[in-house]
């Protein structure tokens, strides 16, 4: 009987204890400065070794906790970690955590991303995170140019208003830009086509260096630039800011306004940006192109003026574990092309290009990119569901002076080429959190493109493209210090091109008999592609050391221009021919990263090795068509390796030093250019930067001086007919401060000097470098941002 009573008492205690383990600990993570919500924060409880992330409202919850004392640490990649102890008795606990921004860490280390452990563990690739403040500090003439301060990122510059990003020498359709969950689709195959995104409306950017085809799909061989809208206004708020911008090099004047607000659950945002600029100046008075010497009036690159009008808006609803927002944007641009480089028509042109530096004369382009996306997120304890749907219309017109070319008579209009591309996207993702330390991600991405053409010039046919891909991905927590990442994906795609026939007659010689015919430049063809992508990697965190590795296989569907182009590219003064026999491009890559960080010092080394069995590129030939050299798309076996190194030193409370370097080596192992590298390969380069922060003085707070100097080696690794590019050093200076009145911020000032010494230099990855046009000369810019 005593034994029975003892067992009964034990069982009663156990049952009582288990019944008490049903308390919850919940709360919210906010910004201590303005009480705004902090998304993607992580809350960790040491005693149960469990981490949860905040939902779209910045909220978190732990369930089934037993009474006791727990050590809670809250992390956010922009803030200082916060550790508190909480005591749970017989009731549920709620707590609000206010995190302070880590200014020293944010400004000097954010570029390398070394101290964002919570974020870095999400990917086995080298990753850089840039928030709105850092982007504002490094703002250049375009979003792509503003990202050049990230090691491994460069641009193909197209005048003063446009540029396309490259990662580790990859650009065009080997780098994917994702905005709010939807792949940005334009005419990115063209070397003279920029990135149609308003950087004033960008809040958060993640740069992934390396293949991310597993999660993103075809084209993500070189990397991904992920642009996200992350903030949600706090309840019952209304505010915004107005920014005024001026630049001296191209006499730019611009204004950008931002508004946001929220009642209880509904919120909105709106950004409007308008600017106008003239011809930009280069540190030379002569341009040598194709054997001709052109004098430049007042050192201005004639006909590079432009205007921009961008509008974007968000309306959303958020409640508990639910978020839905619709984002609409419209980017409208009109830009001139450097007149001396467009088929040399300026020799006989009647246009007075030097009459005004603000005229947008022929040749030029008109561009309108409309985008609407809808994001739905449902967050539960064990899973997250995300649905992204989008529509984009990219309407591009290229206008030139009508002139005869070969057998083509003089056209009756100036509309040389017109592209109208509609893209429909639908993506579904599910994150599943299990109790055995697995985080599964399942996804299906689909996209349909319809691209029509017009104008009297021809280079690619109209086409329809469909692609769909499905993947499964698993992040495994082996221990709190070791995470493994693995996944598999399959993509399927089709491309249907339409027939195109010349609108003019050309002579055809058949068996000695010459007839005139309307030549068929493209036939109706159906292409079909499908392939697997796979990835296996890991992250090992040892407090002051972090190791990453990733083995990846990715692929890319050939583009319409690579398969079917057949026409003159006047911007490049060449004839381009596609190759209908191209296969889907494959890539195998190993990425490594080692990071070491201390409070006053950090360093990161990110090497990679890359192999292509069939890299697709445009190869110059010895053949000519109507006095123009013919370039043909072809495949080659390619081997590449390289990497980046970044470091940051906190020399004193006020002074920090940043160093970075990047290098890429490439070789074609087969084909006509065997033994050569790849076109547009960036040379060895490095940057030294210093930041000096002043103490707050009266009305001036957050005052900083930044000086960075870029050293670029000579690029002798070229692909004929490329020519070597000399090395150079160029410096930039930035001063920023915030003005306060009665402890309330009323203005932010950003003053920047680019190319301090007005150095004449050539960027090897620049579009205009091919025609011997140097980079812009010295430029002073001033931006005043007034919050309200």
What is the count of distinct domains? 2
Strand content: over 45%
Number of helices: 7
Give the structural class: mainly beta
Can you tell me the overall shape? globular
* Oligomer category: single chain
Q: What name does CATH use for the topology of the largest domain? A: Maltoporin, Chain A
User: Architecture of the largest domain, CATH level 2?
Assistant: Beta Barrel
Report the CATH C-level class of the largest domain. Mainly Beta
Structure description:
- The chain has 788 residues and is mostly beta strands.
- It folds into 2 domains: 100 residues, Carboxypeptidase-like, regulatory domain (Immunoglobulin-like), CATH 2.60.40.1120; 682 residues, Beta Barrel (Maltoporin, Chain A), CATH 2.40.170.20.
- A hairpin with a 2-residue loop joins strand 11 and strand 12.
Q: What is this entry, summarized?
A:
This protein is mainly beta and 788 residues long. Helices cover 6% and strands 56% of the residues. The strands form eight sheets. It has a 22-stranded antiparallel barrel. It has a five-stranded mixed sheet with strand order 8-13-14-11-12. A four-stranded antiparallel sheet has the order 3-2-5-6, with no helix packed on it.
């Amino acid at each position: 009987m005593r034994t029975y009573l003892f067992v009964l008492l034990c069982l009663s205690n156990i049952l009582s204890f288990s019944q008490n383990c049903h308390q919850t600990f919940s709360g919210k993570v906010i910004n201590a400065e303005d009480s705004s919500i902090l998304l993607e924060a992580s809350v960790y409880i040491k005693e149960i070794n469990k981490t949860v992330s905040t939902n779209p409202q910045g909220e978190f919850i732990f369930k089934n906790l037993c009474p006791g004392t727990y050590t809670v640490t809250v992390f956010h990649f922009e803030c200082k970690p916060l550790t508190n102890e909480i005591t749970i008795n017989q009731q549920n606990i709620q707590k609000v955590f206010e995190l302070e921004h880590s200014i020293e860490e944010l400004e000097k280390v954010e570029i390398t991303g070394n101290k964002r452990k919570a974020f870095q563990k999400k990917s086995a690739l080298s990753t850089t995170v840039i928030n709105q403040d850092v982007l504002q500090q490094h703002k250049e003439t375009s979003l792509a140019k503003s990202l050049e301060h990230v090691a491994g990122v460069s641009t193909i510059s197209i005048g003063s208003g446009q540029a396309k990003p490259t990662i580790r020498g990859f650009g065009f359709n080997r780098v994917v830009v994702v905005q709010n969950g939807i792949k940005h689709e334009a005419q990115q195959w063209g070397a003279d086509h920029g990135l149609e995104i308003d950087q004033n409306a960008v809040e958060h950017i993640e740069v992934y260096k390396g293949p991310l085809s597993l999660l993103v799909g075809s084209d993500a061989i070189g990397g991904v630039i992920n642009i996200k809208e992350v903030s949600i206004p706090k309840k019952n708020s209304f505010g915004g800011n107005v920014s005024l911008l001026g630049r001296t090099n191209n006499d730019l004047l611009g204004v950008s306004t931002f508004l946001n607000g929220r009642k209880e659950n509904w919120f909105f945002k709106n950004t409007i940006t308008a600017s106008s600029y003239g011809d930009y100046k280069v540190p030379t008075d002569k341009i040598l192109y194709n054997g001709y010497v052109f004098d430049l009036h007042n050192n201005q690159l004639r006909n590079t003026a432009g205007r921009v009008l961008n509008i974007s808006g968000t309306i959303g609803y958020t409640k508990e574990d639910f978020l839905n927002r619709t984002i609409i944007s419209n980017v409208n641009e009109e830009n001139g092309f450097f007149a001396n480089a467009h088929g040399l028509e300026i020799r006989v042109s009647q246009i007075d290009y030097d009459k005004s530096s603000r005229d947008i004369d022929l040749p030029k382009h008109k561009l309108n990119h409309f985008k609407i996306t809808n994001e739905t997120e449902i967050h539960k304890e064990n899973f997250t569901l995300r649905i992204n749907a989008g529509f984009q219309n990219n309407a591009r017109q290229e206008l030139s002076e009508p002139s005869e070319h070969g057998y083509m008579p003089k056209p009756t209009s100036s509309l040389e080429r017109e592209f109208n591309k509609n893209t429909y996207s639908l993506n579904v993702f599910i994150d599943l959190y299990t109790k055995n330390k697995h985080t599964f991600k399942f996804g299906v991405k689909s996209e349909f493109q319809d691209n029509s053409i017009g104008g009297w010039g021809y280079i690619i046919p109209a086409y329809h493209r469909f692609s769909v891909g499905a993947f499964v991905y698993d992040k495994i927590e082996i221990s709190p210090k070791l995470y493994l990442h693995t996944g598999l994906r399959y993509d399927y795609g089709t491309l249907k091109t339409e027939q195109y026939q010349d609108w003019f007659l050309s002579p055809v010689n058949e068996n000695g008999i010459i007839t005139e015919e309307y030549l068929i430049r493209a036939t109706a063809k159906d292409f079909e592609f499908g392939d697997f992508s796979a990835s296996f990697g890991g992250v090992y965190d040892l407090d002051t050391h972090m190791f990453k590795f990733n083995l990846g296989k990715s692929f890319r569907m050939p583009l319409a221009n690579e398969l079917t182009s057949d026409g003159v590219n006047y911007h490049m003064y060449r004839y381009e021919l596609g190759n209908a026999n191209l296969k889907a491009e494959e890539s195998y890559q190993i990425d490594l990263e080692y990071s070491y960080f201390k409070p006053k010092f950090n360093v990161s080394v990110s090497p990679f090795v890359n192999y292509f069995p069939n890299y697709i590129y445009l190869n110059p030939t010895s053949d000519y068509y109507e006095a123009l050299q013919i370039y043909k798309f072809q495949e080659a076996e390619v081997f590449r390796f390289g990497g980046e190194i970044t470091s940051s030193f906190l020399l004193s409370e006020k002074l920090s030093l940043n160093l970075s370097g990047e290098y890429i080596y490439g070789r074609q192992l087969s084909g006509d250019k065997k033994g050569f590298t790849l076109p547009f390969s960036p040379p060895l380069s490095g940057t030294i930067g210093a930041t000096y922060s002043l103490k707050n003085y009266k009305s001036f707070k957050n005052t900083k001086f930044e000086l960075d100097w870029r050293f670029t080696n000579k690029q002798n690794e070229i692909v004929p007919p490329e020519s070597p590019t000399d090395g150079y050093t160029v410096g930039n200076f930035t001063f920023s401060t915030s003005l306060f009145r009665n402890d309330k911020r009323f203005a932010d000032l950003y003053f920047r000097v680019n190319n301090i010494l007005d150095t004449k230099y050539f960027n090897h990855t620049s579009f205009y470098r091919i025609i011997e046009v140097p980079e812009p000369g010295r430029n002073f810019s001033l931006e005043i941002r007034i919050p309200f």
